[in-house]
């Protein structure tokens, strides 16, 4: 019987290229407040399962324990006192403990103690090693390969928290397995994404926090709230730090289905032009490139996708881009599934750099020189805190609401164009009416002038005739 007991796992030292993006802040100590005011601790407090240890506190005259190093106004002291009442707990499964540890560090907490073991027959056993009664619990567990093992482990963790009387249970799923089975493409097929959503809901989860779902409609499969964040801002921030001229960039979608994603990415990347690789798929995990839509000659091509599985699609697309004259090809993706033979295809020299995130842990033997791993821990950590603190999600999480945002922008542009056309028509009509009025006024003025001239002439003639009679 193999046993796994972990409370604060750390990353392997061989993971040398894990990069934290510039937009994410350094880990800070979060303070949960009843009055909605936050403050940062002056020093790091020694934490025990997310709570300051008793040695760090002294008892004030009112009986409240406050940090011994604090000399602050009453409001600040009260804020720090409330920190001891935090109900936030972070637990990690066995799928990606390194990411869970980074999230906990960002929040200024330690991972909760949990015991996970597997019996000889493969059954999973989960026991929480600390009380979560009345707590807001976040379970970090991507359903990456082995998908069935990790999914079952997540379900049992949720059930354990529910039976331990946790107040709220949020399943933090950086990578949602079975997301590609979100519709029926042929007869008598299952929709596994809906089935997995039902399993998570029935297990007792109150909320789901997911990162870069394969398709937006997967959120509708859950009968509980879903917070959907996007890892693309992390990749955008990294690309912005590289010395690539914006005029040389072109964003490439490896298939027609990812056009909306690539178009939104291109808008954020200095409004770069867009190219599309047209492909025909003859079977699962088998792709054939047909042709390229767009110009990539002499440019730096950035291929954008939500995941890389066997790398067949993106590798054949990169080969086509080189044939069409692309100077360099970058591959950017959030989820690195890396099923064989993905590593051989990605390290074959087709790509200048392969940029991924750590939503799925990369095995040590799968690292190659062109691979760069970016961390989404701060993005997820900030979202976790805002969910716990009943705040809205961070703005960076809303950068890539691809389809909805693009459709809304297109509708806004169409409405603006219609309003402009209507305004121009109204202006033209007003100008015509004004012109007609001016013509009428001119005619009246001319008539008046002629009438005055005639009257004046008559008066002159009458006056002349009178003068002649007087002289005679």
Automatic annotation (TrEMBL):
NCBIfam families: PRK01259.1 (NF002320), PRK02812.1 (NF002758), ribP_PPkin (TIGR01251). It comes from the Eukaryota. Belongs to the ribose-phosphate pyrophosphokinase family. Its EC number is 2.7.6.1. Keywords: ATP-binding, Coiled coil, Kinase, Magnesium, Membrane, Metal-binding, Nucleotide biosynthesis, Nucleotide-binding, Transferase, Transmembrane, Transmembrane helix. HAMAP family: RibP_PPkinase_B. Signal peptide: none annotated. GO terms for biological process: 5-phosphoribose 1-diphosphate biosynthetic process; purine nucleotide biosynthetic process; ribonucleoside monophosphate biosynthetic process. One of its GO terms (molecular function) is kinase activity. It is an enzyme of class 2 (transferase). The keyword Hydrolase does not apply. Pfam families: Pribosyl_synth (PF14572), Pribosyltran_N (PF13793). Residues 89-204 form the Ribose-phosphate pyrophosphokinase N-terminal domain. This is ribose-phosphate diphosphokinase.
